[in-house]
Amino acid sequence: MIPTFLRRIGPRALSLLLAGLLAACGGGSKGDSGTPPPPPPGPVDYTPASPRLAKAPLIADLQAISAPDKGGRRMGEPGNATVRAMLAERFQSLGLQSFNGSFERPFTSGYGNGVNVVGYLTGTQHPDKAILLTAHFDHIGTKNGQVVCGADDNASGTAAVLAIAAYLKAHPPAHTVIFGLFDGEELGLLGAEAFAANLPAPWRLQDLVLVENLDMIAQGTQGRIFVGGTSVSGTANTQSFLKATVTGAFSASKVKVVPDYERYNNQSDQGPFKDRGVPFLFFCVADDDPYYHTVNDTFDRIPQDFYWAVVEGALETLLRLDAQAALPTLIERPAARDIAPFAVRWKVHPWSRRAPEKE
Ligand SMILES: [Zn+2]
Fold first, then answer.
1. Centroid of ligand 1 to alpha carbon of 269 (angstroms)
2. pTM (2 d.p.)
3. Which helix (H) or strand (E) holds 114?
4. CA 325 – ligand 1 centroid, Å
5. Residue 351 domain-assigned?
6. What phi-psi label fits residue 255: left (phi over 0), alpha (psi between -120 and 50 degrees) or beta?
7. 195 C-alpha to center of ligand 1: Å?
8. Residue 316 sits in which domain range?
9. Counts for the chain of helices (H) and strands (E), in that order
10. 125 CA distance to ligand 1 centroid (A)?
11. Could you report the per-residue pLDDT of 222-246, keeping only the tens digit for each?
12. For position 27, which CATH number holds?
């Protein structure tokens, strides 16, 4: 369903309109010419001082997920299925737990069918409260016959979730951590919506303390990572707690963290959870990625140490949250009456011949 004013115009006009209005966590139509990025602010060594995560496997996963032979990972296409199988296998080999006996959770939608990859680790202290760590693994496929690799968007978040899952398997979290690698984000947050609307039993939305979503966290040409949710999630107390947590988590990092960046909260997978009142943190380089949705979003252009440092910060954030025994009371929910419904949930890619047609 889309807003009435959008329904009155045809799909083509709508696509053109939305191309300007909607930007999945990024700069919309800019960057399509392949313009090179502005020069970096200076020669900064982003290498984390005392990293918890090894760089090599993180980078290897990023490279494998965004390889051209994955065809741009569009939902429903073979390259997407190849990556999905690889992710499910990894969850298996890491020793994560699965819901209902499988890491793969198929879903149907009016825009096509997809498969989320979901696993979890049971918390040692608070097993009935969960932090949901998410990233979408799908991308947009091809553009003018060329594969759009989606290294930043969002092989970066996907590989980060794999690395963090491996770390947490070895260092068991106090709260349950659910790892959600979602499909169909690029077609309108489809996998996240399907998961939020149909949580695996016995989980309920109120058992999800927080969603931490990683979408485009590598191509930080300005040396900074934006974080959404810190000024809109829950109550004022929640917001100051989240902001302090994120800021503290990056205090030793060369990456500059910019909280209160609420511009694209409806344009990535936290959206369906936000819409249901679940507090969230959304990590994204946003408009700093000049290659957003272009054929230039490739592995070879990723600043590896910056990316590594961001993943460290995302892990540190999660660990600081997990270390709070009173986490569910530190992160409060807005009253039901204050939960605003989603205005526009889906995105349209104007170049696609298979753009959503149903409303
Ligand atoms: Zn995208």
1. 11
2. 0.85
3. strand 114-121
4. 35
5. no
6. beta
7. 19
8. 4-338
9. 10, 10
10. 36
11. 999 999 999 999 889 999 999 999 9
12. 3.40.630.10
